[in-house]
Amino acid sequence: MSAVVRALEIFSQAVECDAATREAYLDAACGDDAALRTQVEHMLHADACDGAFLEQPLIAAESDRRGERVGAYRLDALIGSGGMGSVYRAARADGAFDKPVAIKLLAFDVGDLRARFAREQRILGHLNHPNIATLLDVGKDARGAPFLVMEFIDGLPITDYAREHALDVRAKIALFLPILDAAQSAHSQLIVHRDIKPGNVLVDAQGVVKLLDFGIAKLLGDNLVGAAATRTGLGPLTPEYASPEQVRGAPVGTPSDIYSLGMLLYELVTGARAYSIGDTSPSGIERTVCDTEPLRPSTRFARGKRSGSARDLDAILLKALAKSPMQRYASCAEFSADLRRWLHGESVVAREPMAHERLLRYVRRHRFGVSVAAAASLALLAGLAVALWQAQLAREHARIANVERDRARRANKFLTDTLGAANPSDMGRKATVLDVLARARKLADKELTGDPETAATTQLVLSQTYRALADFTTARDCAIAALQAAERGGDPVLAIDARHDLAAAQFNLGDLKSAAQNATAARTAALAQGTAQQRGNTAVLLGQLASENGDTQAAFDWFDHALVELPPDDVKNRAAALNNYGVALHVKGDDVAALAKYREAIALAAGAHMDSDPVAITQYGNFAAALRANGKLDEAVDVLTGKVLPKQIELLGENSADVVWTLSNLATIEYERKNPAAMLDYAQRGYLAAEHLADADEWKALGFKKYGLSLIRAHRAQEAVPILERALALSRQGLPEGHYDIGSLESWLGLARSMTGDRTGGEALARGAYARLLAKYGEKNESTRIAKKNLDAIAALPVP
Question: Residue 287, exposed/middle/buried by CB under 10 A (0-12, 13-18, 19+)?
Fold first, then answer.
């Protein structure tokens, strides 16, 4: 270890000591090494001097080597230099080709720097991306010191390029996106750059942007001596772009690069840094970086009232710059996806809109025939009423169509008048979609008692909306109210819809017996006096029930009936039928055929611009599951991150059960893709979201379990133990004794305990879980097979 690194290590401890204990610590740490003691004291003095530290180099500058021959190259001009080495523009001395290159040389050929240099060479060898400067060659100079030959980028720092070309905000973001792609490529190789700043992001004359200088990059899991232990605030970094965890000396992962990228984008967009560092002592840097909140970017480049677009861009940048790594984007890919949404005018994941904004965007995407003169928070409900009317107009019998049209108009007027008259502020600034729906239910019960047809139509709209929001209990109650109102009004056709929706809600709640009774009754009535759409919808629901009960052939027959009966222009329900056909095929084990059905459903929905419909989101989730089952992991991740997760967050919020489910699936797929960093990121996000769920929610235990498994796979079993213990306690409370989820959790917890020192207790727990799973589910069951693997892993552990 070099003297400089040793001095830095001692300093990092001494600076935390108070005056009373510092001398004693220095005596013990430095011993008789007077030079080492002097160097540490010099650092301590520099730290105490306001603004003086960064101006005092620890190492003398290297001599200029222009004109020198290094291997087959001639050094022509010094490009830059730093603590690790210098970079020269060079050319082949033998004239083999005349294209300039960049050559990086060591400042001093000493052990620690040589090790870092070798690591940079190894890292660059992993990278192959059009927006990352390419490693061309390696060699040793006449002194035996190593050097790297890099692609020469004749360009400007990205901030200078944007300023000289007077780029607007959209053009700046478009210029920045390839760097996120480059960083994502590095992260996928478990490489963290750790020094992203304008000088390391160059743009050439053709407008091609390149990320360079991986001199202080880190391979995750590569514990280079001295690299992790050094106080990062004094180590090789650029304070203005360093993350809070870097300056604290905490472990650094991919979220640190995301923070630095956020700092770079903030400066690129606004023309100013997020904050300035006045006190450049290490402790001063730490206070500034860790405690200073940046101004909203839009306050620096826009005046007057900020638009929704500006607020969204604020949210994106501030999410990337969150002080906690857990609150930032989970990956550069997600950061990039949100910026692309912003460019396309779509809702961004970083900013959950207020209820009325969320509903308004929903309506605009679906192009419902909705008047936005009503309060925006009612747009979805009004839109659903109009959509219901439009569907009813397709009924064969003209008299029924006219009656239903008038009724839907009355329902639409009720929703608009009673809810639209109320300003969202009357319900409080934090009013949610569910608050708006609850108000609708209350007013419907009170004001529509004398108009049963309008009451039934309104309750149906509410039931369908609650189902879309996964509140199946309330959806069932609204469907019951709709059925009662339809029967009071003597309208058999409307009663078919109400009974169908009641059966659907009961199916979602797991009450299969009641669901089957109501679905069969609805089917009988639809055949007698219903519409083609009603006949098709009841067939789809009966097919779902058959599939759930394990009768896949009956399910296929019902879905075939549905696709014959549903009108050709009823895209939404035909897509639902195809999706459920795919589910039944998956249950049967025919994943190839299931994937084909899912593709049909997705293509149909996309062709009708229904991609963001709540039903379509579910279809995309099933599609991703089928892609995974067919080994198409990359495509599955693209679907979940592009089509499912952002829409779930927009509609249901970041802490919903659906979001936990999707994040848990992403963690599993990233593990299968051998991408441990992304696996852990998604699993942790799912765990944090699951914390907000009720203990009785089955997805809470799932979120905890997935994070615990991911921690074990990331060799962090000690952290996994308490999380898996909580998951097991929740599962034991909510699941019947002997359920396979309980056995699975016991198996994983046994493995985690065994890995952390409790070999006897852990193995006993895992062995008991395996025996119970084997006896109840058999050796071919997936949970049984995994439990056996866990037992084998415990047996392979070294004996203490």
Answer: middle
Q: How many whole angstroms separate alpha carbon 760 and alpha carbon 768?
A: 12
Shared domain for 319 and 336, answered yes or no, is yes
Mark whether 181 and 316 lie in a shared domain. Answer: yes
In a domain, 133, yes or no: yes
| C-beta of residue 198 within 8 angstroms of C-beta of residue 264 | yes
In terms of domains, do 170 and 304 share one? yes
Write the CA distances from 183 to 180, 189, 194, 258, 789, integer angstroms: 5, 10, 11, 9, 35
Same domain, 305 and 251: yes
Angle between helices 657-672 and 698-713 (to 10 degrees): 20
**Where are any strands of DSSP class E within 12-112?**
69-70, 73-81, 85-92, 101-106
pLDDT tens-digit profile of 481-500?
889 988 888 888 889 999 99
The answer to whether residues 145 and 163 belong to one domain is no
Structural domain harbouring 16: 3-48
Residues 710-715 have a mean pLDDT of 91
For the segment 241-248, the average pLDDT, to the nearest whole number, is 84
Q: What is the DSSP letter of 132?
A: B
pLDDT band for 147, please (50, 70, 90 cuts): confident
Which are the catalytic amino acids? Answer: 195
Give the torsion sign (CA, 537, 542, 548, 551): negative
- The answer to whether position 405 is within a domain reads yes
User: Does one domain contain both 83 and 116?
Assistant: yes
Is 653 part of any domain? Answer: no
3-class DSSP state of 78: strand
pTM: 0.42
Question: Minimal CA–CA distance to 724: which of 755, 692, 748?
Answer: 748
